[in-house]
């Protein structure tokens, strides 16, 4: 029986999951879990990429203790962040997407290439942390001088395993620099922003074997975790999905990117899928309530928090996608700054967050249906947020869609499904 290893890393934790086919279904076992998180260094938010690499290798060792024969492995993580390289030497630090370093340079980048022109070419929504703005900030800071490569985080981690530098398609599309027409890095964007052309290599598709580590094939999955998550959803037909974690990635599969003015105005993204386009939007997700909990009631169990939120009557809403919620020192203070009246108790903040998230989903779905000309009946929710029954009920009430909540390891399942393509 062939065994496969999915290394699925999110912004707050990572996990190593072994999978195999049994009676026509994928079976999984978690063999290693580790914490992850943004740290502060010299006034910037960064990733401890060395520790992350250590956990990746330690988890593989744990997997091999139980399963000495593993056919292949692959790594998926969040998108947009990367490691700059000078040959085989890292250029540190590895900045995190929540760092504010891009704020000042975005207008300068748009002087070279307007956002409307960028959107027409790439179909990627405007986010201050998009890789294109991070790279432009690096250019202006001189960090690209002497750089030979930039590797997105999962490709960097696989490079540390097998010594091969790769550029996977689904993750590359999140950079805001891949042509929606050709599926390769857009040379005109690179030229206009005066970025080193040698950094932008040909893109490889999920399923490509790039090397070997301790006798295990190292394979590219859809290395953007949302790309793998969509592959892991047991969807009947083409319906709406939310990959619910730190962010809520809400979208639908389309045959090709939609880069029209209405999609731009709604700030929708077109990101690579495995044989399809993911027409989706980044919405603020469980980050809101996770930060509220850590600040206001870190010891209280989630079931008590949601029960109390459900029982209150605080009904004011906020725009959860307001930049004030991106990386505040105090999430409570961020809510206070946007509410006309303050909750009388802690539960009111959570109720406001959950109801506001559901309303954000409703608005985003209305935009999808208007822009695609399609009506959808179901909404599949996967990831950690799928376990929240209160939020699921609010979402069903707000959107009018049948919510199918699947509290499964969808990202790891998608990662494994791509590795197992010949077996599935």
Characterization of this structure:
It is a single chain. The protein has 424 residues and is an alpha+beta fold. The protein folds into 2 domains: 4-223, ATPase, nucleotide binding domain (Nucleotidyltransferase, domain 5, 2-Layer Sandwich); 235-424, 2-Layer Sandwich (Nucleotidyltransferase, domain 5). The chain is built from 15 helices and 18 strands. The strands form 4 sheets. The protein has a 6-stranded mixed sheet. The longest helix has 27 residues, at 346-372. It starts with a strand and ends in a 5-residue tail after the last helix.
Strand content: 15-25%
Strand order of the largest sheet: 3-2-1-6-12-11
CATH top level of the largest domain? Alpha Beta
Helix % is 25-40%
The count of β-strands is 18
CATH homologous superfamily descriptor of the largest domain: ATPase, nucleotide binding domain
Distance between the termini: 13 Å
Shape field: globular
